[in-house]
Design brief:
Length: 260
């Protein structure tokens, strides 16, 4: 049985000018511990699909199951990390943010702090446990968000362009951190991104979506050993392939932009 099963998911929104279809007949499966990236232009429904998987919105038609259970609202079997730094509670320290989900599960104070410190160590922030979000850089805040999403031990990690607002150097550092965390935890990860190089660096498999309405155009399995070298010929060839699937120009200038 696949860990995640997305079956013929469609989403239609009512608008003053008539119904608009954001997703149409989207379907795929994922195996346990698989790292899947979803890429596509704006308006292709990537974030909508992730929000359905998280249980924040319901599909118009179709359904999703995780671990054999239908998704019906949010659950502790899924951790979610967004792009927005405001996802952290500004009145809580890094430790307090990471313990939040554990509090909701009713875990006692000593145990939840032990787990939270363990997760902060995993993302390299144990020394900053007492710091508030406004004392942390953007990259550090995203590390806290990742630690928080992992603390209550979800089976699936859903990530919606979590590094898009970071500068290029910090984003590269965060990609390496996430790859290390994934190797250690072996979570099943669904990761939405606009960045082709990021997808090649992180994913076992990449789903390419097309817009109007959002559909799966193709799937590309990334057959590169880990850790991956973004400067290797093979890495660049995968970037070119994904850019072609996206219908974008492939050339020296375009490849450079995609790798930024």
């Amino acid at each position: 049985m696949p860990h995640i099963d997305v079956r013929d998911v469609s989403v239609t929104y009512p608008t003053p000018s008539g119904p608009v279809t954001a997703l149409q007949n989207v379907g795929f499966t994922m195996e346990p511990s698989e790292f899947l990236c979803i890429v596509g232009p704006s308006g292709c429904g990537k974030s909508t699909l992730l929000n359905i998987m998280a249980g924040f919105i319901a599909p118009t038609t179709g359904d999703i199951s995780i671990g054999g259970k239908a998704v019906a609202g949010h659950s502790f079997d899924r951790g979610v990390v967004f792009q927005d730094f405001a996802q952290l509670f500004p009145w809580r320290t890094a430790l307090g943010n990471v313990t939040f989900g554990l509090e909701m599960k009713g875990i006692d104070k000593r145990e939840r702090e032990r787990i939270a410190l363990e997760q902060l160590r995993l993302v390299g922030l144990e020394r900053f446990a007492s710091h508030y979000p406004h004392h942390l850089s953007g990259g550090m805040q995203q590390r806290v968000a990742i630690a928080r999403s992992l603390a209550y031990s979800p089976a699936v990690l859903l990530m919606d362009e979590p590094f898009a607002a970071l500068d290029a150097l910090t984003r590269d550092e965060m990609q390496r951190l996430l790859a290390d965390v994934w190797r250690e935890t072996r979570k099943t990860v669904v990761y939405v991104t606009h960045n082709v190089a990021e997808a090649v660096y992180l994913a076992d498999r990449v789903i390419v979506m097309s817009p109007h309405p959002g559909r799966i155009k193709s799937e590309v399995r990334i057959g590169l050993p880990r850790p991956r070298d973004p400067l290797s010929v093979e890495f660049v060839e995968y970037q070119k392939r994904l850019l072609r699937e996206l219908g974008q120009e492939v050339g020296p200038r375009r490849e450079t932009k995609a790798a930024e």
